């Protein structure tokens, strides 16, 4: 936590993430105002009798673009923070000093994870609170308890996803022999999970994977079978699915419980893998 407060790179990543989450709500507000203004002029000129496109949207509509920012920017931020957390000890050779005290390796790693969890929770909490305020301004009144609860659940789910990628960064920071490899490997894994696996299972175009809703296979046959394997592994698509249902996006239907279970399960598995790192590996140096 102290290192995150001091490091400029960490500051930049946190500010970009918070700024983009807030910007997603601001963009929704500007869109609402612009479209509504044009609609009122068209109605005044007697050119349409159609209802305002924003008349029937839910207040949480303005938060849906935050889903893709969590997947793209938040995940990369979490990876960098995770790599730095474990790589810093190896570079400074402080692990031997820490482990010479009555502290076990599992406790040490869980402590680092707890620190990262607090940092991520703070970033998510700030960004979503400001978004809640912006959406309340758009709505003309504070969000009700039901919608506020959905925002909180979405924030918690975002924390689960980001913590999972932070664990991936911690793992490569512990296992890699070089600093560049420690950063490169998790980025490659993230790109495969976020883009390659969904495309294999759905044949979706890469640009469609940048949407806040999960890709849907429209070809059937082979891709339906493959998606049964790649779907649960692609945690980013599961996050999109669960988040869209929580935020009441009409483009996605179903039950979010299965996707949430997968996300929590992957987080638990990654935690076990990281804390199972041998003491000798934590004390290993880097080949610069």
TrEMBL record:
Membrane-traversing stretches: 12-31, 66-88, 109-139, 151-171, 183-201, 256-276
Keywords: Membrane, Plasmid, Transmembrane, Transmembrane helix
Source domain of life: Bacteria
Coiled-coil stretches: none
Keyword Lipid biosynthesis annotated: no
CC annotations in GO: plasma membrane
A GO term, aspect molecular function: ABC-type transporter activity
PANTHER family (UniProt xref): ABC TRANSPORTER PERMEASE
Protein name per the record: ABC transporter permease
Organism annotation: Cryobacterium arcticum
């Amino acid at each position: 936590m102290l290192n995150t407060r001091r490091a400029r790179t960490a500051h930049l990543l946190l500010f970009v993430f918070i700024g983009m989450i807030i910007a997603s709500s601001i963009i929704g507000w500007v869109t609402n105002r612009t479209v509504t203004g044009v609609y009122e002029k068209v109605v005044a000129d007697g050119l349409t009798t159609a209802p305002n496109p924003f008349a029937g949207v839910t207040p949480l509509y303005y938060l849906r673009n935050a889903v893709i920012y969590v997947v793209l920017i938040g995940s990369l931020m979490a990876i960098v923070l995770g790599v730095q957390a474990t790589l810093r000890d190896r570079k400074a050779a402080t692990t031997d000093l820490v482990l010479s005290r009555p502290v076990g390796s599992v406790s040490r790693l869980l402590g680092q994870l707890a620190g990262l969890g607090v940092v991520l929770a703070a970033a998510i909490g700030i960004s979503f609170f400001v978004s809640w305020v912006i959406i309340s301004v758009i709505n003309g009144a504070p969000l009700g308890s039901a919608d506020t609860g959905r925002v909180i659940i979405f924030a918690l789910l975002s924390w689960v996803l980001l913590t999972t990628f932070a664990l991936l960064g911690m793992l490569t920071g512990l296992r890699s022999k070089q600093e560049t490899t420690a950063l490169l490997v998790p980025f490659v894994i993230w790109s495969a999970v976020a883009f390659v696996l969904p495309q294999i299972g759905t044949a979706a175009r890469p640009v469609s994977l940048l949407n806040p809703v999960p890709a849907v296979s429209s070809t059937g046959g082979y891709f339906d079978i493959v998606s049964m394997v790649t779907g649960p592994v692609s945690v980013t698509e599961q996050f999109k699915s669960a988040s869209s249902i929580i935020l009441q996006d009409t483009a996605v239907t179903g039950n979010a419980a299965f996707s949430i279970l997968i996300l929590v399960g992957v987080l638990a598995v990654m935690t076990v893998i990281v804390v199972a790192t041998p003491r000798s590996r934590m004390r290993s140096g880097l080949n610069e």
